[in-house]
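Why do we bother with holo predictions? Because pocket geometry can differ from the apo form. Keep that in mind while you read this record for LF4KAAF6.
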Amino acid sequence: MTALSGKVQTVLGLVDPDQLGRTMTHEHLTMSFECSYVSPPPADEAVAENPFQLQHMHWLKQNPYSCRENLFLQQEVSALRDELLAYKKAGGGTIVENTTTGIDRDLPTLRQLAKDTGVHIVAGAGFYVDSTHTVATKKMSVEKLTDIIVSEVLHGADGTDIRCGVIGEIGTGWPITESETKVLRATAYAQAQLGCPIIIHPGRNTAAPAEVVRILQETGGDISKTVMSHLDRTIFDEEELLEFASLGSYLEYDLFGTEMLNYPFNLDVDMPSDSQRVKALAFLVKEGYEDRLLVAHDIHTKHRLTKFGGHGYSHILKNIVPKMLSRGISQHQVDKILIDNPKRWLTFK
Ligand SMILES: CC(=O)NCCS(=O)(=O)O
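The structure, written out:
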């Protein structure tokens, strides 16, 4: 038991879990994804330089990472305020903003957005993928990394008194690097001390989620309070999915709204459509996993904001929930996915 037990920690302080309401468990409001820039084909350079025009929107949806300006979500604070107000109007209550060190976490802005809109925002502690680890981070011991993560939850991060309420998204690639392994071990040690929720960004390989679980378990991590993100671009085969689900983590489909033909980070992956995501959720519900499912949009680029013609943070509430209901997922099960499961996960033990 700690002072946080039985509570959820938002950027404005501790709240009772019943206050959260409908929750998107994997979003970004202010971040930079410059670490993942992909050069455009030479013929498209002019479009990439001048992206936010109606005639370029299709190109941008297909090539979101090939336009540098698209990667600076942190420039859109005013649009984000409007997004959060629209999210609240659509019935949303909470957003888990899991931007970690390496992709420009901005806690003061998160706190201001929570104050301005009344949406609960839960911030993320820890570190993103290896390519964003600084030389100093890579040199740190597991004990030092653990101390940093624990302090971000107990005292505040980035020189502020704003406290994180989850650890993650903890970034891992494939294969998992030495530095990422140290961060995973630190995450498990911190979780054991704090009884807190954790959320993982796995590498883009079918074997990656289970390998992360193995490392966390080896270090005493609590898999029942762990979210495995991005399953929609990682595990496609139903048998493999059930095998992974049996390990006991939360199973997150968090790229709703993303549809692209060629996924530049792994060209072997066919990014699913939203209909296919709903189908995967219905399958997992049928197989008995309704208490482990979570959903989100993982907005991390500008073009997905409604300001730029994108689907925004209310897409799941407005469009995906009706689709889920029409595909055999009951209202009770939808409420579990949007309210009960996030609440259970986010509550400190
Ligand atoms: C911010 C972030 O890590 N988003 C995930 C993008 S990915 O293409 O699903 O890895």
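The longest helix spans residues 178-194.
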